[in-house]
Design goal:
This protein has 16 helices and 15 strands. The chain has 446 residues and is α/β, with parallel strands linked by helices.
Length: 446
């Protein structure tokens, strides 16, 4: 009976997760926020009379940007003069007017630099009678890599790897990346001025801050050289980053290098930044799907951040409370959270924050039934793996032990991928075409 109950919970978790992904579909997001009214493009509160523009260019980057571009192409068709999108390898869509350039993520590569250089050149060419539509989604920070001279790609890669490993959150990482870039932190909008700029943003950051999504290439930047330098100091990285990176921050703090454009800069008078999708949409859809399946849904938050293992411990404690006292929600229950946690690397294993969450939760819930945990990245990739995340339950640790897998040892190695792979419990979706952070589900049976 227990096995049948777990199978039902696992099947329900997959249905609920797929509902979250569908709600974050970039094509639908574009359709919801862009429309044609005769010869006028309506985007949020702004209206763009298309016959007033000589050229319309599409520029962008991110794991969902190709799908976003497909939505814009369907609407504007031959009105688009051309453009370029930097997307992660394999995250593709069929486009006719816009060129796709596949490149590296989460560590930038030469393809990303070449694509960003071409985008910067197109932005510079745009004049006052042109409209530049920028499509930005999660992953754009790495995929639109154009190091500020004299920093090299290799030096930017080294700094990125240090940031990824230290446990810095996305706001902190992007504050640093904006100040070693030639296009981030509002600098792409500065290159495009005086052209009109419409940026469509699919948010993968907590709070949907415009200057953090994709490192804000078209948004005023509130961070400073001093703040970014302070982040490197906080994580003990200032003396570890390449000398050219450190020298740039020191010069910026002394005022020898111009700051990124700030709120109130006149260059943003013709710039519109419009958030068209977010983690909240995915989480709300998950809650609706859970209720439809007969679960009592409880949304904890769409703003969960912090160390992955600690977040998993709290989620597991909530599951035990539900089973024991029927609080804060009665079973059958589906506890849902969104956001993006961080992993401080201690070992040399393979995995990602969602797989690590599932493994840490499995340890906390060992022997606790009936509970199923699913944690997945909405983009379909979790860390440098082919999995979006993983699924676990109260029997996961004991099943692994029978295969000779020690859960605690593999967690300490940050090797969650090789824990779940033999169990067949990796969550593998392939590239989803979207990216709105993570969705975590905890299903508690009656």
């Amino acid at each position: 009976m227990e096995h049948a109950s777990l199978r039902r919970l696992r099947k329900a978790a997959m249905v609920i997760f797929r509902a979250a992904l569908k709600a974050a579909d970039p094509l639908e997001a574009v359709r919801r926020h862009l429309a044609l009214d005769g010869h006028t493009l309506v985007a949020g509160r702004r209206r763009y009379r298309l016959d007033a523009f000589r050229n319309i260019y599409i520029l962008g980057a991110g794991k969902a940007s190709a799908t976003m571009a497909a939505g814009v192409e369907r609407l504007l068709r031959q009105r688009i003069r051309g453009g370029l999108i930097n997307t992660k390898y394999g995250h593709l869509a069929r486009l006719r007017r816009v060129e796709l350039n596949e490149c590296g993520h989460p560590v930038p590569d030469e393809n990303g630099v070449r694509g960003a250089e071409r985008m910067a050149a197109l932005a510079r060419e745009a004049g006052p009678e042109d409209l530049v539509i920028c499509l930005i989604s999660g992953g754009a920070s790495a995929l639109m890599a154009l190091p500020a001279a004299p920093i090299t790609l290799e030096e930017k890669q080294a700094a990125t790897k240090l940031l990824l490993a230290c446990g810095a959150n996305i706001h902190e990482m992007n504050a640093v990346r904006k100040h070693i870039s030639a296009v981030k932190g509002g600098q792409l909008a500065r290159l495009a001025a005086p052209a009109a700029v419409l940026a469509l943003l699919l948010s993968d950051v907590i709070g949907d801050d415009l200057d953090v999504i994709g490192s804000g290439p078209t948004a005023p930047d509130r961070s400073t050289f001093a703040a970014a330098r302070g982040i490197l100091e906080q994580y003990g990285l200032l003396e570890r980053v390449p000398a050219a990176v450190r020298d740039r921050f020191e010069a910026g703090v002394r005022g020898e290098i111009p700051e990124t454009p700030k709120p109130g800069d006149r260059l943003f008078e013709r710039v519109e930044n419009l958030v068209i999708g977010s983690n909240r949409l995915a989480v709300d859809a998950a809650a609706r799907a859970a209720r439809k399946l007969g679960f009592n849904p409880l949304v904890l938050s769409t703003m969960i951040e912090g160390e992955t293992r600690e977040v998993a411990r709290v989620h597991a404690a909530i599951a035990r409370e539900i089973l024991q006292s029927h609080r804060p929600v009665k079973p059958p229950a589906c506890v849902i959270s969104g956001g993006e946690t961080t992993v401080t690397l201690r070992g040399q294993g393979l995995g990602g924050r969602n797989q690590e969450f599932a493994l840490a939760a499995a340890l906390e819930l060992a022997g606790v039934h009936p509970v199923v945990v699913l944690s997945g990245g909405t983009d379909g990739t979790d860390g440098p793996t082919d999995a979006a995340g993983a699924v676990a339950d109260g029997g996961t640790v004991s099943r692994a032990a029978r295969l000779g897998l020690e859960a605690r040892v593999l967690l300490d190695r940050n090797d969650s991928y090789h824990f779940f792979q033999p169990l067949g419990d990796l969550l593998v979706t392939g590239p989803t075409g979207t990216n709105v952070m993570d969705v975590r589900l905890m299903l508690v049976g009656a």
